[in-house]
Amino acid sequence: MAAQQQLGREQQGITLRGSAELVAEFFSYGINSILYQRGIYPPETFTRVQKYGLTLLVTTDPELANYLNNVTEQMKEWLYKCIVQRLVVVISSIDNSEVLERWQFDIECDKTAKDDNGPREKSQKAIQDEIRSVIRQITATVTFLPLLESACAFDLLIYTDKDLAVPAKWEESGPQFIANSEEVRLRSFTTTIHKVNTTVAYKKDSVP
């Protein structure tokens, strides 16, 4: 009976709140994957979890986990209100602050979903299948991205509607673009309410 109920939930349509939660959850796992794959934190500070039919790695570092949880909760709210346009993971050299990689997630929101009474017709399973393809691509990027030879740090940039007040814990920032970069577009996914397009840019002249 429990299995039938679970299946029923997965086959139901998607609401604005449900879409916001799915997309924010994707960002949490996606950022963790980038930080692990690019060696920003030591591999021993990650643990394996099962999600989207994949084995993913998430941080066990308490400070980082708390920071990412706060980001995820804030993103849920902004996605629900359809006021967030882009999330960017910036990787830069600790030595000279040079930006080496820029992972950009562009977010499109169908604002008519705010006025919809019923859910949209797309199952959670179909959405998670699309998300799985994106996560797989993030994992596979290590085959073509240049090796990060120096110790690196990361920063998160979130682009919202201009009239949004910046929360107390956040601060305004510049775009942190990469000079002389190569860009690769990854897969996109859509919940029918939110669509996320992913690209990664990296410093071209660091390729041998």
Give your account of this protein's structure.
Strand 3 (84-93) and strand 4 (99-109) form a beta hairpin. Helix 2 (16-37) runs antiparallel to helix 3 (62-80). The protein has helices at residues 2-11, 16-37, 62-80, 124-140, and strands spanning 46-51, 54-59, 84-93, 99-109, 152-160, 181-190, 194-203. The chain contains four helices and seven strands; from the N terminus they run ααββαββαβββ. It starts with a helix and ends in a 5-residue tail after the last strand. Mean pLDDT is 87; it is low at 1-10.
Number of H/I helices: 4
Helix content: 25-40%
* Number of E-state strands: 7
* Sheet/helix structural class: alpha+beta
Q: Multimeric state of these chains?
A: single chain
Shape: globular
Low-confidence spans: 1-10
In the sheet with the most strands, the strands line up as 5-3-4-7-6
Query: What is the end-to-end distance?
Result: 58 Å
